[in-house]
Amino acid sequence: MGVPIVKEDMNDLNRAAPQIVACPNGPLLVRGELDLVTPEGDPIERKRRTVALCRCGVSAIKPFCDGTHKAIGFTTEP
Amino acid sequence: MALSQTLADQGTFPHPSFAARGPLSTRLLELLSAAPEGSPDLLTLADEALVHAAEIVHDDDIQLSLFVLYGLHYGSVVETDDAWEWHPSLISLRRHLEAAFEAELRRVVPVPALPEPTSAAVAAALFALTGEEPGPSLSRYVAAKATKEQLAELLVHRSIYTLKEADPHSWAIPRLSGRAKAAMVEIQSDEYGGGRPERMHAAIFAGTMRGLGLDDRYGMYVDHVPAVTLASLNMMSMFGLNRRLRGAIAGHLAAFEMTSSIPNGLYARGFRRNGFGEDVTWYFDEHVEADAVHEQIAGRDLAGSLAEDEPALLPDILFGAAACLTVDGWAGAHILDAWTAGRSALRVPLASSVPSAADASAPAGAGASGWESRS
Fold first, then answer.
1. Nearest residue, CB atoms, A66 vs list B189, B190, B261
2. Which residue from A7, B47, B181, B274 has the fewest beta carbons nearer than 10 Å?
3. Which helix (H) or strand (E) segment is A20 a member of?
4. What does the pLDDT read at residue B162?
5. CA dihedral B336, B342, B345, B350 (to 10 degrees)
6. A43 pLDDT exceeds 80?
7. CA separation (Å) from B69 to B14, B75, B83, B218, B234?
8. Within an 8 Å CB–CB cutoff, is residue A74 touching chain B?
């Protein structure tokens, strides 16, 4: 039934479709493969498959979220 | 010598690493010291224990019994005949104790007003619930004041759940479906190290324990923790193992994740202040980042999706979240109250009876076995 999906196709599929969820009053949740790099192009280590990127500016572990947006009452409402 | 030890001496299996805390747990450990035979009645003793318990969550005999019963499903709690796991007498005892435990929790846990059963509204309600300040904070005390001895006590308390971190919620995976299941698996995969066993959160925590000179084998400190610490794990096990309560376990995980990143940052600070290095603080540092991810997934994709897909579960989602905050709040207050009063927060202080590898097979510390004399 249909074209068999080989492993390479699955990887391409995964790579082609990363998803960024803009969490209300919170971080940007990144799912799927994409390169996270410094301005110089050096890779930033990604320790887990799904990561949360700081959006409020006060995280102590930027670019990742550390939950502090809750303590400062950060809101994404206009 | 306690009755449990005398009788266990006649059995086939080694003593557990902890002692009984009353007639019910004594009888239970006696039975588990040998292979099952017939259908022993435990409900009479259970009823007596329930009648005498002012509060089930603080009752040593009942909480230890539940801990042992759930331990048959987890392993590494009591070494016994595997046939006991599904023995009708023990399942019947567990259901009996669970019914009373659940009824008490539903009576005492304050549950907030229900939001609309949409993912966004449920996530917002859970973030609001978990954002309320529950009074003095254990994590702030740890960051600013805790001594090395107190840090060891904290790890002893935490070891009851954390050496099995994520396992109670994993019971819920086959009990969920669709989006909620995918979200639960996404979180749990990260908890279990994303395919790398050395990054499993329970394994990282074991390293933290070793860094403070503590024994990282499961159950070595059961005698040291009060009933409420056992109740915290027992509640999760009950929510996870009963499909009916899948709303509660989803809400529990959401509340747990939402109250983790910031406190773990403070715990890490307390360990660093006392001179501990990365090997010890890795566990806490890891949770600052991981749980900032997990709380987003747990709020919207786990609890929120579950409420959308099964709106009838909404009250239990909020109940499970509130129960997590309430019971863990009591466990935290127990520790903080003891420390601020200059006491040990353990049932049996560590100094006199930290087990060493050499006496692991010996009966539990003498100080912890005499429940008869205390009651």
1. B261
2. A7
3. strand A19-22
4. 98
5. 150
6. yes
7. 17, 10, 13, 15, 9
8. no
Amino acid at B367: G
pLDDT of residue B134: 64
Predicted-complex ipTM score: 0.84
Is A24 within 8 Å of B123 when comparing Cβ atoms?
A: yes
Residues B67 and B204 in one domain: no
Count of domains for chain B: 2
Residue at a domain's end among B74, B108, B142: B108
Size of interface A-B (CB pairs under 8 A): 62
Asked if pLDDT for residue A33 goes beyond 90, the answer is: no
Position B68 in a domain: yes
**Domain match, B16 and B89 both:** yes
Both B180 and B48 in one domain: the answer is: no
pLDDT of amino acid B252: 98
Residue from the list A25, A27, A66 with its beta carbon closest to the beta carbon of B265: A66
Report pLDDT for A78. Answer: 74
B288 contacts A26? CB cut-off 8 A = no
Q: Which residue has the tokens 């249909």?
A: A2
Interface check for B289 against chain A (CB to CB < 8 A): the answer is yes
Burial grade of B157 (CB within 10 A; 0-12, 13-18, 19 or more)? buried
Backbone angles phi and psi of A37, in degrees to 5: -135, 160
B211 and B316 both lie in a single domain: yes
Q: Are residues B125 and B103 in the same domain?
A: no
| Model pLDDT, residue A77 | 86
> Is B358 within the bounds of a domain?
no
CA distance, residue A56 to nearest chain B CA (Å): 13
Q: From chain A, pick out residues whose CB is under 8 angstroms from the CB of B121.
A: none
The reported pLDDT for the residue numbered B130 is 96
**Chain A residues with beta carbon closer than 8 angstroms to that of B295:** 67
B86 lies in which domain range?
3-108
On whether any CB of chain B is under 8 Å from the CB of A27, the answer is yes
DSSP at B277: -
Q: Which of B139, B192, B199, B289 to mutate to test the interface with A (most CBs of A within 10 A)?
A: B289
Residue B370 lies in a domain: no
Predicted local distance difference test score (pLDDT) of residue A12: 54
Low-confidence ranges of chain B (pLDDT < 70): 1-11, 134-135, 351-375
